[in-house]
From TrEMBL:
<dbReference type="InterPro" id="IPR036704">
    <property type="entry name" value="RraA/RraA-like_sf"/>
</dbReference>
<dbReference type="GO" id="GO:0046872">
    <property type="term" value="F:metal ion binding"/>
</dbReference>
<feature type="binding site">
    <location>
        <position position="137"/>
    </location>
    <ligand>
        <name>substrate</name>
    </ligand>
</feature>
<keyword id="KW-0479">Metal-binding</keyword>
<protein>
    <recommendedName>
        <fullName>Putative 4-hydroxy-4-methyl-2-oxoglutarate aldolase</fullName>
    </recommendedName>
</protein>
<dbReference type="GO" id="GO:0032259">
    <property type="term" value="P:methylation"/>
</dbReference>
<dbReference type="Pfam" id="PF03737">
    <property type="entry name" value="RraA-like"/>
</dbReference>
<dbReference type="InterPro" id="IPR005493">
    <property type="entry name" value="RraA/RraA-like"/>
</dbReference>
<keyword id="KW-0489">Methyltransferase</keyword>
<keyword id="KW-0808">Transferase</keyword>
<dbReference type="GO" id="GO:0008168">
    <property type="term" value="F:methyltransferase activity"/>
</dbReference>
<keyword id="KW-0460">Magnesium</keyword>
<feature type="binding site">
    <location>
        <position position="138"/>
    </location>
    <ligand>
        <name>Mg(2+)</name>
    </ligand>
</feature>
């Protein structure tokens, strides 16, 4: 990938099975609740370009911060491009198995954290999707992409002069949720969930087991079984 990942990569076999079964974010968050861990992102962050999507991949993060004036107001400031250029994560040559995740703390709804050209580039790098803690721009171009672009809203303005990229490949924050690079991101039409890396393999296995149980329950309900009795038998709903 052009560099050694600063986090452990999840078993591709396990991820493939999870993705093929399209385990619901509802199942994932139920398991995380039982572990007293993980978070769901705000429902304001949704797929801007697709009516339906399923995304499961490890996060590679971009941390944005507000630009503040220096102590000497007469001193020349860095160019706006030098402040933001690292959002294109030049250290990576492939995004296979990864999802691009960017945040600045509070939702940045008044400036786009990415746009049509950068998201097209991320898709070409192999990223499975893009998750932004704020706005995006260039909807026409985004609608031509096959990967989900999750954002709060479209807006024409960008971040140059207002925000700068503090670090990449470490962690970022989207509202109250801190996402570490390597955390598993699961997203579908219900929402987006962040799974801490250290819990991922355990969660994936539990989710596959629960999915099998719940699919059996749904099949029985469709054939006329009573749900209260099934819940008593399985402990699931």
């Amino acid at each position: 990938m052009g560099l050694t990942m600063p986090f452990e990569l999840i078993s591709p076999k396990l991820l493939t099975e999870f993705k093929e079964k399209q385990i619901s974010t509802s199942t994932v968050i139920d398991i995380l609740d039982s572990m007293n861990a993980g978070y769901a992102l705000s429902p304001e962050i949704h797929a801007i370009n697709l009516s339906d999507h399923y995304l499961v991949a490890q996060a590679y993060t971009v941390c944005w911060k507000m630009v503040r004036k220096g102590g000497d107001i007469l001193q020349l400031q860095p160019s706006t491009w030098s402040q933001v250029s690292r959002f294109l994560i030049p250290e990576l040559h492939t995004g296979t198995g990864l999802v691009y995740v960017a945040g600045a703390g509070p939702l940045v709804t008044h400036a786009a954290l990415a746009g049509g050209m950068s998201c097209t580039y991320f898709e070409k790098l192999g990223f499975a999707g893009v998750v932004l803690g704020g706005a995006v721009r260039d909807l026409r171009e985004l609608k031509q992409l096959s990967i989900p672009i999750l954002a709060s809203n479209p807006i024409p303005t960008d971040t140059q002069g207002a925000y700068w990229v503090a670090e990449t490949g470490t962690r970022c924050q989207i509202e109250q949720v801190t996402i570490e690079s390597g955390d598993l991101i699961v997203s579908d039409i219900n929402g987006t969930v962040v799974v801490p890396l250290e819990l991922t393999e355990r969660l994936l296995q539990q989710a596959l087991d629960i999915d099998s149980t719940e699919n059996t329950m749904l099949d029985k309900i469709r054939r006329g079984a009573r749900l209260p009795e099934l819940i008593t038998l399985t402990g699931r709903i």
